[in-house]
Write a structure and sequence with these properties.
The protein is mainly β. The chain contains seven helices and 32 strands.
Length: 659
């Protein structure tokens, strides 16, 4: 008997065949001339089916995409360009037990309290609180516990896809679409409160994301051979020259929910309404070419789409952490191994979690402005100097528990001053508001050839100020830090006889570097405290791509390695052009990780303004963390996007037909 997951593969083949059979006459239509009857519309339409099978899950994607790209020369030298894209992903119906209305279930959480630990209130020693696991809603109750929506249904344990609880904190996360289960649903910047229809057809929303690009453009000729180029509309502005990870290419936010970091950036950038102007000055005595570009992004703020919990691609598992924390704030819930560092605890509403999301309202002050100077030297060196002021596309969580806040255990008040000489001061319980701070960037890039090596070299670098990072050594549990990022890439076509004796094989290597200034990291009795992000980190990528059978068959291998996380992604694939219009790609994506013990970090269970609940040792000072930690919630930043997905091994088939 054919399973629903095997049926997904069969349906993808049928979908491609049907698309091919209806190609041709379906698109012989007349479009308006827009003032230039002598210029025809140039229209290209493509259909793509992308089907993925994932370990331990089964069908993880059955995405069908129809895209139309069109160009038209209009009156008075103007041009029109547009890309419309619509997607339907059938995985939410075809595998509903994992990603749809039937996802999740009843859960139990780990409990390390066995009655031998001293210092907790006497009721904690009741035998019912000393079992190895505790049913959701059945933990040790504290002030206000049990008054919210504690249905033990439609839940998963936070992080269970990629790590065991193993003595850390964890809690229940609702995973069904938000029209089925509203618990924890918030707008985190374009995701987080989506219904099943919005998840399976993501472009059809209030922001009109089915318009991938729609702009008008014109070049004005000026004196002395100079030109001014203007582009106005919904567009992507590409400043970077790298793959997978971005350094300068940060004007447009990115939709990681489409395929994590593994789709082309051109497919996952979120286009924005912008004005782009370029003053093209041409050559000079010392330069082959020069131009100045100014970009004004006047659109409403958009964050990176990190994926809604309950969907297949949730980068860093961050969307699940956000949804679970929002549910804890609204309804309370059960947190594993919390009180005393070992006792699974029930919290009431408005004690821990995410209280509010501060999405920037539209205003002139919240728009984004960038400028870039580009040039080509007489020797052929291409370079740019870039500057940008923008809102961070990644969220910052700022603790709302500080000096003089209400003690959620007793209703009284407490201070948060720390103890001089005995470790850094920390905030209270894990409760946050989400913010998107203003960031300023300066940087540059250059490209040049190395003829003796037959290689092209790409370099980018950027320095930012205003970024915010989790930091359990600070009272707000975050800190502002300046950051330096750089990447060097080398591309070289190389003849490798065992791959092809007639065509060169492309070898492309990249090395990314990130340094966080004023990084804080303290060794405390039970583990590290401070910033989970690595002070210095390197990520390397390698692409080897061959071209066989006159370029119609192209095998490739992509490797990516995060050096500090000790996590590796291996992505082999073969692309076969059956004709000029039909292409099939078969591939896989595997992750390896041997640094999992390095990912644990302070989870603030022992941030101690509330003894004895957060006091793990009688000698621990009030207002101090002893570094008791686990994988949640900050281990995800140490694991990175590769490590946090190391149990998401995929195999896929992709069919692309051009009408």
């Amino acid at each position: 008997m054919e399973t629903k997951h095997e049926n997904g593969w069969r349906l993808s083949l049928i979908a491609a065949a049907l698309s091919a059979s209806f190609a041709g006459p379906a698109w012989s239509i007349d479009l308006p001339s827009l003032g230039d009857d002598n210029s025809p519309w140039q229209v290209d339409v493509t259909y793509e089916n992308h089907t993925v099978r994932r370990q331990n899950v089964g069908l993880a994607k059955f995405r069908n995409t129809l895209q139309a790209e069109f160009d038209k020369r209009a009156a008075d030298g103007w041009g029109i360009h547009g890309i419309m894209r619509g997607t339907w992903d059938g995985v939410y119906r075809m595998n509903s037990s994992e990603y749809g209305k039937d996802a999740g279930g009843a859960i139990a959480l780990e409990n390390r309290f066995d009655g031998s630990q001293a210092g907790l209130p006497p009721p904690a020693y009741d035998p019912q609180y000393q079992t190895p696991t505790v049913t959701y809603g059945g933990g040790f109750p504290i002030y206000g516990a049990g008054t919210g929506d504690l249905r033990n249904e439609g839940l998963r344990v936070l992080g269970d896809r990629w790590h065991p609880t193993a003595g850390g904190v964890a809690f229940g996360v609702p995973v069904r679409p938000c029209d089925v289960d509203k618990r924890g649903c918030r707008d985190f910047g374009g995701y987080g409160d989506l219904s099943m229809n919005e998840l399976e057809m993501p472009e059809f929303n209030k922001r009109l994301d089915f318009i991938r690009e729609l702009y008008v453009k014109k070049t004005y000729d000026l004196d002395e051979g100079k030109q001014f180029f203007l582009k106005v509309g919904k567009q992507q502005v590409v400043w970077g020259r790298t793959d997978l990870f971005r350094v300068l290419d940060v004007i447009n936010p990115v939709d990681y929910s489409r395929n994590n970091i593994y789709d082309e950036l051109s497919d996952i950038r979120i286009p924005m309404w912008m004005v782009q102007g370029e003053y093209r000055m041409g050559a000079s005595e010392t330069m082959q070419d020069r131009n100045i570009q100014v970009v004004w992004n006047f659109d409403q703020f958009r964050a990176n789409n990190l994926g809604q919990c309950g969907s297949p691609n949730v980068i860093l598992d961050a969307g699940c952490f956000f949804r679970g924390m929002a549910n804890l704030w609204d309804n309370g819930g059960t947190v594993a191994n919390f009180a005393g560092g070992v006792l699974t605890t029930d919290f009431g509403p408005h004690q821990i979690g995410i209280r509010k999301v501060h999405l920037p309202d539209w205003s002139i002050g919240n728009t984004q402005l960038g400028a870039k100077y580009e040039g080509v030297t007489a020797g052929g060196l291409s370079f740019s100097l870039n500057a940008l002021t923008y809102r961070s596309q990644l969220p910052s969580l700022r603790s709302i528990n500080g000096k003089g806040t209400v003690n959620p255990f007793t209703g009284g008040t407490t201070g948060n001053t720390g103890v001089a000489g005995e470790g850094p001061p920390v905030a209270g319980l894990i409760a946050f508001d989400m913010h998107f701070p203003r960031v300023n960037l300066i940087g540059g890039s250059m490209d040049f050839q190395v003829p003796d090596a037959g290689a092209a070299v790409r370099v980018e670098a950027a320095y930012t100020s205003g970024e915010e990072f989790s930091n359990t050594a600070r009272p707000g549990l975050y800190s502002k830090n300046n950051v330096f990022r750089a990447v060097i890439g080398i591309d070289r076509p190389t003849f490798i006889p065992f791959i092809s004796e007639s065509s060169a094989t492309l070898i492309s290597a990249q090395l990314f570097y990130q340094h966080i200034f004023d990084h804080e990291y303290f060794k405390m009795p039970l583990g590290p405290v401070g910033m989970p992000d690595w002070e210095n980190n390197f990520i390397g990528t390698l692409l080897v791509k061959g071209f066989l059978r006159n370029g119609t068959l192209s095998p490739q291998m992509v490797l990516a390695h995060d050096f500090q996380a000790r996590a590796t992604a291996i992505a082999p694939q073969v692309e076969w052009n059956l004709s000029n219009d039909l292409k099939i790609t078969i591939g896989a994506n595997y992750k390896l990780a041997d640094g999992r013990t390095r990912w644990n970090f302070d989870d603030c269970r022992s941030c101690n303004p509330y003894a004895p609940f957060t006091q793990v040792d009688p000698s621990q000072a009030v207002g101090q963390s002893w570094g008791l930690g686990g994988m949640e919630p900050l281990g995800r930043f140490r694991a990175g996007p590769i490590g946090a997905a190391f149990r998401e091994d995929d195999i896929f088939i992709k069919l692309n037909y051009k009408f």
